[in-house]
Design goal:
By secondary structure, this protein is mainly β. It folds into two domains: about 40 residues, no CATH class; about 230 residues, Neuraminidase. Helix content is about 15%, strand content about 45%. It contains two helices and 22 strands. Strands 3-2-1-22 form a four-stranded antiparallel sheet, with no helix packed on it. It has a four-stranded antiparallel sheet with strand order 4-5-6-7, with no helix packed on it. The chain has a four-stranded antiparallel sheet with strand order 10-11-12-13, with no helix packed on it. α1 runs antiparallel to α2. The longest helix has 19 residues. The N terminus and C terminus are likely disordered.
């Protein structure tokens, strides 16, 4: 009975550690580019992971199977190992469909396919399936009437999520991973009309504006998927003039895996 109680306690701690040690990585195209690690609990100040031209962010995604962080600044696709004190970026190449460069403004990664999904705005908004090794994209779906500058994938619900800034469709959407059909979940919070970064994780969506805290920029809004409501905010990490684009990714903390492993050891010991 004692070992059972220990296993339960460790399991609870593992679940809690999913948020306690998680990183919310954010970036935009502000005048002094930087990618930031934001504590989702709000207990510590944002930490700069990268600055300079390689830190310009239009879209961002995280691959949990390889612990790689991806981001792009228009057509340029970068990656770096996540979870480090600083990011060491590598340029994969230019995102392209044939000879045409793609101006991607939203990015997501689906582990089951090992592929990125990118959104290109313009007269004919479209989603593109992107090879993360070569940056080669191919048409996936039309998105007429939408502007999914904020885009991410959530493995728990097996769905993409998008933020549309388009005046006729402004709001938060669930996007079917196979048909790409969009289902409206909620309006934007408050008086927001322009939110360009989105991260999904821990049962929540993190809505990241490109605004800067230096000029009174908007906070990071937290949307709870279970209740369908906004539950909290986190101060913006951005420090210089407001950008046009933003990207975000949720990186679970390693503590959860360690605690779950401990729980498994206790369970095995009890059986013996």
């Amino acid at each position: 009975m004692k070992s059972k109680r220990i296993a339960v306690a460790i399991g609870v701690l593992a679940a809690c550690s999913g948020s306690a040690f998680a990183q919310l990585i954010v970036g935009n195209d502000q005048s002094a580019p930087a990618i930031w690690d934001v504590d989702v609990t709000g207990s510590r100040a944002p930490k700069s992971l990268l600055s300079g031209s390689a830190a310009v962010v239009y879209g961002m995604a995280y691959d949990p199977t390889s612990a790689q962080l991806y981001w792009n600044n228009g057509a340029g696709l970068y990656r770096a190992p996540a979870g480090e004190s600083k990011l060491g970026p590598s340029l994969i190449g230019s995102i392209r469909d044939g000879a045409r460069m793609l101006n991607i403004t939203g990015l997501a990664f689906r582990p089951s396919t090992g592929r990125l999904l990118g959104f290109e705005n313009g007269p004919s908004p479209r989603l593109f399936d992107i090879d993360p090794e070569t940056a080669v994209g191919q048409f996936a779906a039309s998105c007429s009437g939408f502007d999914f500058g904020g885009l991410d994938y959530d493995a728990t619900t097996d769905a993409f999520y998008g933020l549309s800034d388009h005046s006729s469709s402004r709001g938060v959407y669930r996007i079917d991973p196979d048909t790409f059909a969009a289902t409206r979940l909620a309006d934007y919070p408050g008086t927001e009309t322009d939110i360009d970064g989105l991260a999904a994780g821990n049962g929540r969506l993190y809505l990241v504006s490109d605004g800067s805290r230096a000029d009174g920029g908007d906070p990071i809004w937290i949307f709870d998927l279970a209740s369908g409501t906004y539950v909290d905010t986190i101060p913006s990490a951005f420090t210089s003039a407001t950008g046009v684009y933003a990207g975000a990714a949720f990186v679970p903390g390693p503590g959860a895996w360690a605690l779950l492993t401990m729980a498994g050891i206790v369970a095995v010991a009890r059986k013996r």
